[in-house]
Design brief:
Length: about 950
């Protein structure tokens, strides 16, 4: 309570001392000690400065007027009545008046004033009381009301107006009871007032809930005292301190306390020295410590020494400077278990900016850290297994492979060594051990019965891993124990090696630490590695058998080697196929749908009644152009697939560069913008002919020119060839948008253009430059790009040195040898009626169409039967894929019966492998679907020795 009266005491012009009853018996003979005093009091004892302890010591001496003061204190405490006395101050040689006001059962205020006489004077008392009231009116936080014996208000200060809502004019002269006392307290308050004014019975200080002018409750702490008026009549004065804000703060503190205690985060509050003063329930739940065990302790009891000391140092520097610290700890529970916490630690400052406490709010992040570690471990395991798989795939020699498998297993789970046993009937044979032992092992280790080895037998029978440690060594044989002792092995892990036929061997990993255990994750990753090892061992075994078989049967050597190569190539193709699949689906959907839209749309429009011939011709032309566009896309897809998988085979035929340049020019001269000029360059007087892949060189030039046409809006495109020493260089130069340095490499990757904006603005599937680049690389050269954004680009590549073209005049066809028959019997083997009708109409509508007699077989069986039943067939058009019997099988049968009959295969597969299969089956030539009518007729006429002119077919 002394804090409430300090403002009054400090501002009083009189000497004031606040006494409080001691908590234990005093040896000085009285029960009070000084709690507070003002500077005016020091003047009465002639001291400029003094502490509370010094004043208490002086009063305890009980000399002079201080003796009278202490004596009266005991009287007031006994009588509990206000007391006024006059006494002589022998320190200053003056008379003083002492006024004793009991505040409550434990506190008394003593006022000291100068007095001209030792007799109490009512007038002087009144003046003194007025001074006290004037002083009380200046206190801004205490409401004071005065009440006479009639219960009427005689004093009402400004704070009372603010607290209760009545002005002094409204309150003075009114019944104090009616103004602010609730009905439930009226009897008690009336009794208290009468007792204090009439019988001098003090009213104890207490908390009350009164009400204001609006009837609203007002919580106050009340203390009452008596002052005499000018007539010497006692008046009761009530000092009320508003507790509303304090109550609200207490409520908020209670709510905060509940929230803190029930928080899912751990909360720790320490003093300024770091000693724990409070922890919540979550702290105890998480750490295992009770509240009593940690109060007064330093948070270092949680220290695990796993956190970097620099973290703790930085933490203390931060919070000591008044700043908030964020970070993570690795702490240790009472049980010794480690756990991870994310913490926010902040200092608590008093009104003077001094640190009084620290508060830490921490979250248990052990689960998150463990999950992150598990993810990291899983990622590392996958990376390790991938690297191991690559290592295993790098050799087919068991002599190198088996030690490699052991070594990779040792590195994978950090053990010391291992061995591999291969099952051989009822026996297992030691095939490899790593590292090599210092001393030779006994002979029985090389090959031993499975039944003699308990754990090996268990692993083979169940196909599950088996762990062995010191505690189950008793199940090992004497011989096994001797070997383990020689090798220094104390723990082992048996992993079965499994193929399609079951367990065929054991991978054993061992360590010398007898306390070593194998975790479930270690066992699982070893199983994954063993699966890869099993495949690698099986492949190596097959390879070894194939080599041995090759030595015995040399005629099958090439086939067996190809099988092994195809196995690895197929694996690589499968991996590449997965990578390309997503890119293919994402990039080709729009490119394929665009021409399909033209084909389907104009096909539908052709059905419109009353179309003019001109409109029909236009629609047919649009369908043809869209079909060619779609076919080009399909060709690009097939080309990039061949290049990615290495299936593209360069063909050696005659190449005429001038002819290629002219064909490309004719193809693109009408496809440029009106503002773009297309030109070719060829050295005058030169004839460039050599042996190479004519089709591929033409395709590369097509792709480069097509790229230039697409990205050039105005200016010029020039393409051609130049002689650079002993090599010819093909180039394409344009004034298009150009390519910045950042994208010069990426534009040659499949499905890539310089950026997505280019793709949206110019279209295209992003395969052209990639195809061109790969073809040139396969030729042994490289496409060079020189470009500047906004100014244009130059693509060029050097043709490798090629053999010159020999004089083939003797091989030219003698047109005089051509002859014609009246009728030609043509057998068309095709299971699709639409394709059959297309081929039939194409042949019968050609120049010599009236001479063709067409026979239709819907499958391979019918084709063979028609060939046999009919007397003579001049030519067979054979679909490769048909029901009942495919076209290749039917071709073999027909060729066995008549080797001379020409067979042209029709195939939808444009890969080199398919072409090879077609020719190996006996077909004389092939044509790809979708069928080019001109090419079909040219091939048919060629085999039937009919004169052919492509102009006649248009």
């Amino acid at each position: 309570m002394e804090n409430l009266y300090q403002p009054i005491i400090d501002q009083s012009p009189y000497g004031c001392v606040l006494f409080s009853k001691r908590t234990s018996n005093s040896s000085q003979g009285f029960d009070y000690e000084v709690k507070y005093f003002n500077r005016a009091f020091l003047q009465f004892i002639s001291l400029p400065e003094a502490t509370i302890d010094q004043v208490n010591s002086l009063i305890n001496s009980r000399v002079g007027f201080l003796f009278d003061m202490t004596s009266c204190l005991n009287k007031v405490s006994v009588s509990e009545k206000p007391l006024e006395i006059a006494t002589f101050n022998d320190v200053q040689d003056i008379w003083c008046k002492l006024i004793f006001h009991p505040l409550d059962e434990k506190s008394i205020v003593v006022y000291i004033t100068k007095s001209e006489t030792s007799v109490s004077d009512p007038v002087q008392d009144s003046v003194l009381n007025s001074k006290i009231l004037e002083l009380l009116n200046q206190i801004s936080n205490i409401a004071v009301q005065g009440i006479n014996k009639k219960g009427e208000v005689v004093y009402w200060n400004k704070v009372s107006e603010q607290l209760y809502g009545y002005s002094d004019q409204e309150a003075l002269g009114k019944s104090f009871i009616d103004l602010i006392i609730p009905e439930s307290l009226k009897c008690k308050v009336i009794s208290d007032i009468e007792g204090m004014l009439i019988n001098s019975e003090p009213i104890p200080s207490e908390e009350l809930v009164l009400h204001n002018k609006n009837g609203e409750p007002v919580a106050v702490y009340r203390n009452c005292f008596i002052l005499n008026n000018f007539n010497g009549e006692p008046e009761l004065y009530s000092m009320d301190i508003d507790l509303s804000e304090l109550k609200l703060k207490n409520t908020m503190l209670n709510m905060l306390s509940v929230a803190t205690s029930q928080s899912p985060a751990t909360i720790v509050i320490t003093d300024a020295n770091g000693n724990i003063q409070y922890v919540n329930a979550k702290f105890c739940e998480l750490t295992g410590y009770t509240v009593d065990e940690v109060i007064g302790q330093n948070p270092r009891i949680l220290k695990s020494n796993e956190t970097n000391p620099e973290v703790h140092k930085q933490l203390w520097i931060t919070i000591s400077s008044g700043e908030e610290w964020h970070g993570e700890f690795i702490n240790r529970k009472k049980s010794g278990e480690l756990y991870y916490e994310s913490a926010v630690i902040a200092p608590i400052l008093n009104d003077f900016g001094k640190i009084t406490n620290f508060i830490a709010v921490k979250e248990d992040i052990t689960g998150r850290i463990m999950a992150q570690r598990a993810i990291m471990e899983h990622s590392n395991n996958l990376a390790a297994l991938l690297e191991i798989s690559r290592s295993f795939s790098s050799t087919l020699d068991q002599e190198f492979l088996l030690p490699m498998i052991i070594q990779k297993g040792v590195e994978l789970i950090n053990v010391d060594g291992g061995a591999i046993y291969i099952k051989d009937g009822d026996f297992i044979s030691l095939k490899s051990i790593w590292p090599e032992p210092n001393q030779p092992l006994p002979g029985f280790v090389e090959k031993t019965s499975i039944s003699d080895h308990y754990f090996a037998s268990q692993c083979i029978d169940t196909g599950e891993p088996v762990t062995i440690s010191k505690h189950n060594f008793k199940q090992l044989s004497f011989q096994e124990l001797a070997i383990l002792d020689q090798l220094g092995v104390n723990v082992m892990l048996y992993i079965p090696l499994i193929s399609a036929n079951g367990v065929f061997g054991l991978l054993i990993l061992s360590g010398d630490d007898e306390n070593r255990t194998f975790t479930q994750s270690e066992i699982e990753i070893c199983q994954s590695m063993a699966a890869q090892a099993s495949l690698a061992i099986e492949n190596a075994r097959l390879y070894k058998e194939s080599v041995n078989y090759t030595n015995q049967l040399k005629q099958h050597n090439v086939e067996l080697e190809n099988l092994n190569k195809e196995f690895f190539i197929a694996k690589e193709k499968a991996e590449q196929s997965d990578r390309l699949k997503t890119a293919f689906l994402q990039n080709m959907s729009h490119e394929i749908r665009t021409p399909m839209n033209g084909i389907l749309g104009f096909s539908e429009l052709l059905r419109t009644p009353g179309l003019s011939d001109q409109r029909k011709d236009s629609y047919v032309r649009y369908i043809s152009e869209s079909t060619n566009q779609l076919l080009n896309i399909v060709d690009d897809i097939i080309d990039i697939s061949r290049l990615e998988t290495g299936d593209l085979v360069l063909v050696q035929d005659e190449v005429d560069l001038a002819e290629i340049l002219q064909k490309v020019y004719n193809q693109y001269r009408d496809k440029t913008n009106e503002s773009v000029k297309l030109n070719t360059f060829f050295p005058e007087g030169e004839e460039v002919k050599f042996i190479g892949d004519n089709q591929r060189i033409e395709k590369v030039l097509q792709k480069l020119v097509c790229n230039a046409v697409k990205f050039t809006r105005d200016g010029e495109i020039v393409f051609g060839c130049k002689n650079r020493g002993d090599k010819w260089v093909l180039f394409v130069e344009d004034t298009g948008i150009g390519v910045d340095e950042e994208h010069k490499e990426s534009i040659f990757q499949p499905f890539r253009q310089a950026d997505m904006q280019v793709n949206r603005e110019f279209g295209g599937n992003g395969l052209g430059l990639s195809i061109a680049s790969r073809i040139v690389e396969q030729m042994g050269s490289e496409i060079i790009l020189e470009s500047e954004p906004g100014k244009g680009s130059v693509f060029y590549f050097a043709l490798p040195e090629m053999p010159a073209v020999k004089d083939d005049s003797a091989l030219k066809v003698n047109t005089d040898s051509l002859y014609t028959k009246e009728h030609y019997n043509v057998l068309i083997a095709e299971d699709d009626e639409i394709n059959y009708q297309l081929i039939k109409d194409a042949l019968t509508g050609s120049s010599y169409g009236e001479r063709f007699d067409i026979f239709w077989a819907r499958n391979g069986v019918e084709a063979v039967e028609l060939f046999r039943s009919h007397g003579f067939i001049d030519l067979v058009l054979m679909d490769v894929k048909m029901p009942r019997m495919d076209g290749l099988e039917a071709t073999k049968i027909i060729k066995e019966e008549d080797q001379a009959v020409p067979v042209i295969a029709q195939t939808a597969f444009a890969l080199e492998g398919e072409q090879k299969n077609v020719l190996n089956a006996g077909c004389d030539d092939y044509i790809f679907k979708p069928i080019n009518i001109g090419s079909l007729i040219e091939k048919v006429y060629g085999f039937l020795k009919l004169p052919y002119n492509d102009q006649q077919q248009n």
